[in-house]
């Protein structure tokens, strides 16, 4: 009887130890040498018309008068085309999908906070993307601002870096904008 009890305790201890670990450890992966890729493209954020690429999905009831296309506290979903040039008929190379929220009460200091996955659908980086999550002070005087790259997938796995954005064209009445993106991407 005591032999059976000892065997039972041994099985219970082994079972308890194997179920108590919720993680595993592995040896670090030896990464390839880090690369730097510079990308240049345009993002078309269109709020107006019959086929907008960004739409308001939520807004605060107490903010953003009727004269503002992007009132304070408004949340937008985006599926913006990425193109080689600034023209609406320029070759499309991908899309920017994500969300942004208007984070400024004063339209003269218009700032958004954005998360977007900038995916490439053609060429050398087809199937790859960079992810940005950052404050974007759209109305900055210098006209050029920087947002952070926080990740990526495909050829940009484990990406980090930054994107310099310059407004190529903006309509403050409709909110429509064409933006030049110059990205510096560090990846493996």
Automatic annotation (TrEMBL):
The record ties this protein, via PANTHER family, to: NUCLEOPORIN-RELATED (PTHR21495)
Q: Which residues form the signal peptide?
A: 1-16
A single Gene Ontology biological process assigned to it is:
phenylpropanoid biosynthetic process
What is the role of the protein in this entry?
Dirigent proteins impart stereoselectivity on the phenoxy radical-coupling reaction, yielding optically active lignans from two molecules of coniferyl alcohol in the biosynthesis of lignans, flavonolignans, and alkaloids and thus plays a central role in plant secondary metabolism.
Q: Which family does it belong to?
A: Belongs to the plant dirigent protein family.
This protein's superkingdom?
Answer: Eukaryota
Compartment(s) where it occurs, according to its Swiss-Prot or TrEMBL record: Secreted, Extracellular space, Apoplast
The entry's protein name is: Dirigent protein
Keyword field: Apoplast, Secreted, Signal
On assembly, the entry states:
Homodimer.
Q: Which InterPro entries match?
A: Allene_oxi_cyc_Dirigent, Dirigent
What lineage does the source organism belong to? Eukaryota, Viridiplantae, Streptophyta, Embryophyta, Tracheophyta
Keyword flag Signal: yes
């Amino acid at each position: 009887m005591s032999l059976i009890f000892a065997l039972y305790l041994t099985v219970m201890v082994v079972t308890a130890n194997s179920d108590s670990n919720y993680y595993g450890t592995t040896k670090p992966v030896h990464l390839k040498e880090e690369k730097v890729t510079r990308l240049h493209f345009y993002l078309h954020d269109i709020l107006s018309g019959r086929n907008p690429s960004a739409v308001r999905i939520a807004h605060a009831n107490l903010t953003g008068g009727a004269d503002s296309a992007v009132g304070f506290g408004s949340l937008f979903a985006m599926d913006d085309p990425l193109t080689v040039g600034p023209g609406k008929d320029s070759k499309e190379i991908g899309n920017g999908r994500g969300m942004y929220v208007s984070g400024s009460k004063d339209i003269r200091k218009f700032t958004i906070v954005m998360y977007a996955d900038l995916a490439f659908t053609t060429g050398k980086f087809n199937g790859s993307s960079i992810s940005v999550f950052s404050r974007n002070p759209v109305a900055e005087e210098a006209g050029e601002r920087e947002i952070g790259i926080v990740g990526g997938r495909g050829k940009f796995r484990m990406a980090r870096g930054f994107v310099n954005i310059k407004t190529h064209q903006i309509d403050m009445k409709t909110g429509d904008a064409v933006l030049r993106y110059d990205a510096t991407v560090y990846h493996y």
